[in-house]
Every structure is written in C-alpha cells, then in structure tokens.
Amino acid sequence: MSTPDLNLLVTLDVLLAEGSVAAAARRLRLSPSAMSRALARLRETTGDPLLVRAGRGLVATPRALELRERVNHLVQDAEAILRPAEALDLRHLARTFTLRTSEGFVETFGGDLLEHVGREAPGVRLRFMQKADRESASLRDGTVDLETGVIGSTTSPEVRVQALFRDRFIGVVRPGHPLCQGEMTPARYAAGRHVVVSRRSIDKGPIDDALQALGLEREIGTVVGGFSTALALARASDLIASVPEHHTEGLRLGLHSFPLPIPALEITVSLLWHPRMDGDLAHRWLRSCVRDACAERRVSAGS
Q1: Helix (H, G, I), strand (E, B), or coil: what is residue 72?
Q2: Is 113 exposed, middle or buried, given 0-12, 13-18 or 19+ CB atoms closer than 10 A?
C-alpha cells in the first residue's frame, strides 16, 4: 500500500473551509485547474466526492463534514511542529531534567544551581544521578539530559562538550595529621599511606607517574570509587587523599588541604550533552544555568 500524499491534507483543509474550488485556488495561489486536479486526487484517495454540485456552488458531503474539524486540527498541529520554536516561558515551564554528575559536584555547585533554576523556573525539577562511569549511552538514549566530568577515551565523539572550569589536584589530611606541619616535599608526601580514587579499581595513575619520575613510590592503603568516600576516610584516619580542589570544596570543610609537591596535575571539568538537544530551548537554558552556577561559585571562592 502506497503512502498517501500528506500535502493533500492542507488542500483538503482549505477546500472544506472555503467550499469553493476557485476560492481555495486563490488562497493557496494555485490555478483553478490545478485545484480541480487536487480535488480529484482527494476524491480518489478518500473514496468520497467530498464536495458536490448544488446549484451554482458546492456543498460538503457527510464524510467531508465529518473530516473538516479533524483535518483542520491536524494541519494546525503540523504547522506548529514545523514553525520555529517560540520564546521560552520559564515561569510556566514544567519539566524534570536529569543530571549525571559526581557527589562532589552536587555538594559544591548544586546549591547555587538549584537556587538559580528555582528563581527563574519554579516548575522545573532537577534530578541528580551519581556518575558510575564515563559511558555516553545514557545521553544518547535520553535517560540523562546533562552530564559533567572529564573527557575520556570512552566518551562518544558525537557528544557535545563545553568546558566549565579547570581544576587542580591537592592533598587532603585530617586536622592534626603529621603533614599539617613542616615543609611539604615529594618524599614526605610519598611516604604516607594513601587512599586512591578509581571507578575501575586501578591503583596507579598520573600522580604515581609523577612520583616515579622523581624516583619515589607511594603506599596505597585502599582504593575507593569516589572523592567523597576518599575524603571521609581521610577525615577518620591518617590516610592521604588527593582530590580536585574546586570539585570537592564543600566536602573538604574542616580538613587540611595542601598543594601537591609534584608538577601541577590539572583537569578540565566539562559539560556534556547529546547533539539532538542542541535546539531545545529549555535545554539551552539549563546549560546556561550550570555554566553560571560554576562561574559564580568560583568567583565567590576567590578563584
């Protein structure tokens, strides 16, 4: 069965509204003969005469009267779909967005983001989902709207990326830890017992490479899956945690932080989304909210 010509819906809508081939032709800027041919095609497609002669004019058949309102609504819906998006009414926007990010990001930037969103769009709800890996499938299938993190080899090349801020790793220990006093040297840092953060349970990374270049090796006490867990262990023991500075600002309250005594280890934290959401006005607005929240928080922190 062949697919019907959907352009005929517009023609049918105008014919039923005008009740005249000549008037419909003028409205659609067609010749009367072209409109007559279109009516003939509609009759063939629907199996109904639709408009029949009555004196000098045309009258609609019962089938045409039945279709008139339905066809008009279909055409209006189609025109609305194909029309450029209208201005976003944030005060009446009702939508839930899912953000996949780390606990540290939510702890540090979540409050400012929620305040920003609530002030401009009180009907919008944010759902934060913990980030267990760097796979992009959840962005692709739409279960996640936005994601924050560091770009890795598993990040899909189709994903859109915008840098939010640069961060550097620092060392963190409990108050009263021996490393709170005296000069911090690579040897002192490496000599302590460390808690390593790795989602894949890998106990070696860039910090170990930098220490190895200096002829040093640190002792790994344990490996955990997130920065918040690493900081909780550092708070309750003599373990040394090495974490991103801005990303963990709120989580480090009450702890002693210090610059790593090795070449600067920096990362770029980015915002990620799927390209199919590029043109969505509400999604664009949310992306700007995340960027503003990160920028405002860093300015208030004096960085």
Answers
A1: helix
A2: buried
